[in-house]
Amino acid sequence: MTTERVTADFWFDPACPWAWMTSRWMTEVEKVRPVDVRWHVMSLGVLNEHKLDELPEDYRAAMTTEIWWPVRVCIAAAEEFGDEVLGRLYEALGTRFHNQGLPRTERETIVAALEDAGLPARLADAAYTDAFDGALRASHKEGIEKVGEDVGTPIISVPGPDGAEVAFFGPVVTPRTQGRGRGPPVGRHPAGQPARRGSTRSRGLGRRVLFSTERSQGLGRGSGGCPREKQSASAPAEDSLMSRYGPDRPLPAARP
Hints:
Blueprint lengths: L5 E7 L4 H16 L2 E7 L2 H5 L8 H7 L4 H14 L4 H14 L7 H10 L16 H12 L10 E5 L5 E5 L2 E2 L3 E2 L2 E2 L33 E2 L2 E2 L5 E2 L28
Parallel strand pairs: 1-2
Antiparallel strand pairs: 1-3, 3-4, 5-8, 6-7, 9-10
């Protein structure tokens, strides 16, 4: 019997390390489940532009400048070449930002990612102009309206068991622990190792949705829109966005 494939819509900002970890988990899901990921952009800059005075000073500066640059390049690429280029461009950018620790503020980093993704280097110019901000805001709005403003990145939307859309913030996937040490570096997944079973829950539905997860925790929004160890105000503990797994320990401070 042929299993019908399901599309999972995934909204990300390439600057967010937590969205990056979840995106790598999603690429593993594609290998072991009948799921196809459709990538969309959202923006930590848009998310926080009305809350700048609530953020720490260093975040405030980033949210009005450099946080916009990579995601503008992503939306410019999608506008010219179609949404299907987003997955490979996100992988090229995320690998440089979050695995290799290269600066997202340097044009050379973005140009190298574009070339890796088979895209023209000239798209890097989009980082420093608001020419594509209308399309960026529209994509952001499409994702955020599914879950509400009191979340960060990423957002995932899938069809539930009855066919109705189920959208949620997260899941936030923490690095796998092996023995006494940490697991693979941020953004890497041990190839060929099946994920531990866990249930991803949508607020108000409490039903299992498609995926098995590794060590993951229900987290609220942190400074700048990336997650932190805190229950979201809009999701009480008894009805969280995710069932909680793993040791009850604080996570590293989330930075954009």
